[in-house]
Amino acid sequence: MPSPRLxxxxxxxxxxVSCQQVETSPTAQQSEAKATSQRPNIxxxxxxDLGYGDLGSYGQQKIETPFLDQMAREGMRFTDFYAGSxxxxxxxxxxxTGLHQGHAYVRDNWEAGGWxxxxxxxxxxxxxxxxTLPSILQSAGYATACIGKWGLGGPGSEGAPQNHGFxxxxxxxxxxxxxxxxxxxxxxxxxxxxxxGNTWKNLTGKHYSHDLMTEEALSWVETQTEDxxxxxxxxxxxxxxxxxxxxxxxxxxxYLGRWDDPAYDxxxxxxxxxxxxxxxxxxxxxxxxxxxxxxSLLKEQGVDENTLVMxxxxxxxxxxxxxxxxxxxxxxxxxxxNKGSVYEGGIRVPMLARWPSQIPAGQVTEAISAFWDLxxxxxxxxxxxxxxxxxGKSLLPVLRGKWSGDSARQLYWEFPGYGxxxxxxxxxxxxxxxxxxxxxxxxxxxxxxxxxxxxxxLADEHPERxxxxxxLMQGEHTPSERFPLPGVDS
Length: 490
Fold this sequence. Notes:
This protein is of the alpha/beta class. The protein is 28% helix and 15% strand. It has two domains: 37-406, Alkaline Phosphatase, subunit A, CATH 3.40.720; 413-476, Arylsulfatase, C-terminal domain (2-Layer Sandwich). The chain has a ten-stranded mixed beta sheet, sandwiched between helices. Strands 13-14-15-16 form a four-stranded antiparallel beta sheet, covered by helices on one side. Strands 3-12 form a two-stranded parallel sheet. The chain is globular and about 60 Å long.
């Protein structure tokens, strides 16, 4: 019979071996490898026409957005972040190229066809050879996907997503087609995916596009995280809450009866809806739910700590058409103007960033920033060097809490649509000109630090500042043959 001393030693070594086996189990090793050996993953979510005030973290009182509000609490919320343009296609072009609208190729919406079912699809194609964020990341070894709305080139055009750095595209190539959430088809790269059970211009159908795109995104992320060491970049361009107002019953029901909700008859375009306010709120909450599902998946797959997730919108909340009721929801908060305007309500948008290993929870920043900053930011996060020319600056120091402020930051917009407009933010000051096409364009000057709602035009009180900012504005504008700026180029 073994001595007591030998029994004790045997038990000690058994426990030691057992501990070592736990510490070096395959699951623990895989999780640690994902967290430490791989360059960061990046997920950029862009909503469509979501206003500055449409999220609870930005003051929304009627629409429930618990998952995005949690994302704000766990990461960083930007107060002074701007879209690339007040409308869809040029804003997306700015995001992809890092060039503001004074230098970008696409500066307004441009349509390849009309509004009927068999009209040619697509908007102005982004030219082959354009330097884009995904093309740089793809060349650097990132897996890349764009899921959602494209708007920078139709089927078979040089602007198709796979020509600009995306391994996978799934969604709407044409933003006109995206005006219906129950489309007859979507696109997977250049393959048309027919959606049986959906009917042209029908309010409901079998396949809700937002759900299809969410499932595609979750499946793609799961595949990337299970396959191994390749980092990934996902651009998830949701079409919520752009019109038309359409949402499945399970997201509509929670808001029915909460408020007076006059029916929309469809006379101003888009599809009619019996409960338009409930539909809008339901759409936003459904998107919020699905962002929560994506964040949960990143945790389940062990890549949460090593993934930067950003959420924003392509422009401000829409004007009151198609049943939308921005004033009722205060979708732009206290900001003046709507989509299509270079007032704050058309271009200032929500921006949330979450990266647990790098961004301390509960941060709020006043860093003045815009879409054209996203390209240099993502490249620095991805540890990718590039000689690409951009108008932006990396926000990585901001995300890491090392930003000391930039009182002289300068941002510029121009928009040949809606009467021809220009805007320049310089520190706390915003100068804008509207109605240039009609020969108007009298400068308006606002101090955003004291007047975020742009109620008090101070142009007459500060003529020297106006003159200086007009000079800065002119220096940011490069004429475009395709998109001349009426009142400036003429």
